[in-house]
Amino acid sequence: MPAIQLTPAQRKEFRAEAHHLDPVVMIGGDGLTAAVKKETDAALKAHGLIKVRVFSDDRSERETIFHTLAEELNAAPIQHIGKLLVLWRPKPAKERIEDEDRMPGPRDVKVLKFSKRGGQRPEVKILRVLGNQRLTPGGKIKRAKPKQTSVKKRSQT
């Protein structure tokens, strides 16, 4: 599969986004193995834009790793600076089951009630929170408030 082709403006945007990222895949002395390719593929599926750190001093080897990953994983090579490689691939859309009558079910939540006096064990309560309810920081259950809309939005509809 060929690598994704991007315009220089798109590359510039992805470089800016990747600036603050930490490397999620590290390539050690064994080089580009099947396990590294699998991890890189999983990271691209999860994040879309990733940094890869290569612990090799040979620049030509890093360059070949960069282009090989881009070709084999159908990713766009964004940047190769020093020992860092930046790759991008659009994240696949998650499949959602669309059931109209599907509602969030009840969930059980543990609440710790601490004693006013020190040295006593906290009391553990298990509360069932329904879909239209929320748990307050004080450990009480309240119904969810209806979402408020602004006056301008109400007048437009």
Describe the structure.
The chain is α+β, with helices and mostly antiparallel strands and 157 residues long. The chain contains 4 helices and 8 strands; from the N terminus they run αβαβαββββββα. It has a 4-stranded mixed beta sheet, with helices on both faces. The radius of gyration is 25 Å and the shape is elongated. The model has no long low-confidence stretch (mean pLDDT 87).
Brief characterization of the structure:
This protein has two domains: 8-88, 2-Layer Sandwich (Translation Initiation Factor IF3); 103-143, no CATH class.
Number of extended strands: 8
Question: Which architecture of the largest domain does the CATH hierarchy give at level 2?
Answer: 2-Layer Sandwich
CATH topology of the largest domain: Translation Initiation Factor IF3
Radius of gyration: 25 Å
> How many separate domains?
2
Biggest beta sheet attributes: 4 strands, mixed
Helix segment tally:
4
- Calculate the mean pLDDT score and round it: 87
**Which residue ranges are poorly predicted, with pLDDT under 50 across at least 5 consecutive positions?**
none
Tell me, what's the shape?
elongated
Strand order of the largest sheet: 1-2-4-3
Structural class of the secondary structure composition?
A: alpha+beta
In the CATH hierarchy, what is the superfamily of the largest domain? Answer: YhbY-like
β-sheet strand percentage: 25-35%
* Share of helix, binned: 25-40%
